[in-house]
Amino acid sequence: MSSPADLEDQLWLVRHGETEWSLSGQHTSTTDLPMTASGEAGARTLAPLLAELDFAQVLTSPRQRARRTAELAGFPDAEPDEDLVEWSYGDYEGLTTPQIQESVPGWSIWSHPSPGGETAAEVSERLDRVVARARAAEGKTLVFAHGHSLRALAARWLEVDVAEGRHFALDTSTISVLGVDRGTPVVRRWNVQP
User: Fold this and answer.
1) How far apart are CA 99 and CA 38, in angstroms?
2) Is the pTM of this model over 0.85?
3) 19, 23, 68, 118: which could join 122 in a potential S-S bond, CB 3.0 to 4.6 Å?
4) Binding-site residues from annotation
5) H-only helix segments in 52-146
6) Which helix (H) or strand (E) holds 80?
7) Sequence-ordered list of residues with C-beta below 8 angstroms from that of 113, at least 6 positions apart, any chain
8) Catalytic residue among 16, 27, 146, 148
């Protein structure tokens, strides 16, 4: 059984609603796309569940797709945090994995560098700051961000290499919960659609 302290030490993750590029599989980091109408509808479905909870802090990536998701989910005053931006894909921005693999067979963000983009070590460093901030909070932390960055954040919460995020599939407009069980970081829920 978890202790009351373990239950308070939770990090809630929300992936932003659908965009045209998340729908097509194009890698989107710095391109600041709006959500589709379907993405906005999906973001609204998050509000009833999240409204029932108290959060010590609510953070969001500064990208409009994450900020708008936070707003539609009932958190218009979420604090922008640059550490929550998507993994920078550099020269691969806007490309799909199959397009990249035409010139780099077997490419994956988890195992290969992206020319002009962030390294796994750089992503890990900034997400470690998010983990530290969440663990220092007196209560639950809610973050709104992106597919790869949230998967990497889960890996860092679990104290494993950022590349282990490859094991966590994450859909748009979903909620995931990380916590602690008897002092060990754990995944409590993953990829839940309300």
Assistant:
1) 26
2) yes
3) 118
4) 65
5) 64-72, 97-103, 120-136
6) strand 79-80
7) 119
8) 16
pLDDT one-digit tens code per residue, 181-191? 999 999 999 99
Task: Map out the domains of the chain as residue ranges.
Answer: 4-192
Per-residue pLDDT of 70-92, as tens digits, reads 999 999 999 999 999 999 999 99
Task: Give the architecture-level CATH label for domain 4-192.
Answer: 3-Layer(aba) Sandwich (3.40)
Cα separation, 111 vs 12, whole angstroms: 26
Consecutive H or E run containing 130: helix 120-136
Binding site for substrate: residue ranges? 65
Residue among 40, 86, 93, 118 flagged as catalytic = 86
To the query of whether residue 148 is one of the catalytic residues in this protein, the response is: no
Say whether 86 is catalytic: yes
Report d(CA 43, CA 137) in Å as an integer: 25
Residue where the block lists tokens 């729908």 = 23
Q: Which residues contact 1 (CB under 8 A, 6 or more apart)?
A: none
